[in-house]
């Protein structure tokens, strides 16, 4: 348990803070997007990345709150490079607008930290007609990542530096519906359970990560060169970053060649008392009644942001992709989270929901 502070192979433990796990790391020259950066783990992640010299773009739903956080950080660290951009992950239109503006900005993208999330909401639909937790926690990040992937690949090529995608999941991915993902009832109110729906969205974060990492690792090994790329393949209405092929005459194809240094990993930040609990009156009530006791059961925000910052910046994570981290160490997710067929099914399902009709 984290309260004992037992260090793992990385040299860090659950009690390590974000500042500790990034001590001595120079992020100068890197640019990061952090979603949900106006409070909680996202805010602390922004502060630490900026402290290490990273140019941080805060992707936030509440721009005023984001600007307030930016000003607070600048008072502490006047040399911090921080911008604020509007992004509502429950809206596909907002995700497309954000990505379009970012891709047009000319900024590189070394780190994409998909951190934003909501938890245990009453049943609601997004403006796109999709259950709100699934829409916000998974689908919005799936679309955003797809739309920004070409910029990340170009950054990797031009900088000759590894680009990292980090999806913030949760241990709660273990507590989901029996089939894992309710593909046929994703937005069904009768089958909706607030806790299981949250677990479903967090399981989706890991499955998305794993399938993305698998695609990014693909390489073509063949004895023939008669391969014609299709340049207009699409993901979510934008060019598909992973090559597709219309004609292949080879004897032994194992993988597709991507040729860029982009990794994807997911993580559990730990139980952290943040505003994500705002929709759960029971947990909020428990927190108010036994707040002192909870200090020994949950991490503070500085500890909660540690794994995110570790996976984003630490040299120990170089070349690591498709892994799940907890307490700044590689950990084992649930059996469903490691189901490659389920990951591929979710990928195709998410494409069908995000591709413009």
Largest sheet: 8 strands, mixed
Would you report the number of β strands? 12
Which shape, going by the Cα principal axes?
globular
Proportion of helical residues: 25-40%
Topology order in helix (H) and strand (E) letters: HEHEHEHEHEHEEEEEHHHHEEH
Kindly report the average pLDDT value.
Answer: 86
Distance between the ends: 48 Å
Oligomeric form of this entry?
Answer: single chain
Low-confidence stretches: 219-257, 285-290
What percent of residues are in strands? Answer: 5-15%
- Neighbour order of strands in the largest sheet: 3-2-1-4-5-10-11-12
Gyration radius from CA atoms, angstroms: 20 Å
- Helix and strand content put the structural class at alpha/beta
Description:
The protein has 357 residues and is of the alpha/beta class. Helices cover 38% and strands 15% of the residues. The protein has an eight-stranded mixed beta sheet with strand order 3-2-1-4-5-10-11-12, sandwiched between helices. 46% of the residues are buried. About 13% of the residues have low confidence.
